[in-house]
Amino acid sequence: MDSRPRRRTRSVAVVAVLAALSACGGEEAATSTTTTTAAGAFAPSGGCPMIPPGQLMSAAEATIRFSVDRVCPGYVTIPVGTTIEVRNEATKPARFVVKEGPDGSGATVFDLELDAGEATSVTFDKAGFHLYTTSLLPSFKGNIEVRDS
Prior knowledge:
four-stranded mixed sheet; alpha+beta; Immunoglobulin-like; globular; 2 helices
């Protein structure tokens, strides 16, 4: 049996994969900048920090931004005493609620009403796990892990 057609098929497959990868834009496609549009919504380029759950974040990295179609970041890990910003980047008011416990079954820590484009700061004074939600995306549930320093 002649193996030439098989090699040719493999070569065509490799060329097709390489062509598809080069169309993705290489390194430029993987970069992202934090920008917002004039209306206050997230820009298509993204802008969410790529920090894995459990890795301590600075107050700037832990800024929670939300709009009608996105919340960022979904998991925040900060040391006790950190003040973070919560920013409503939607064009309408929204509630932002933080409850104790990883499932949100504990006491309410913060229950904030933010106008369109409004930002506020919140400080976490004790260690623990918290669940946060926003009225703009009721099915979304984010986590805030506060660690002793």
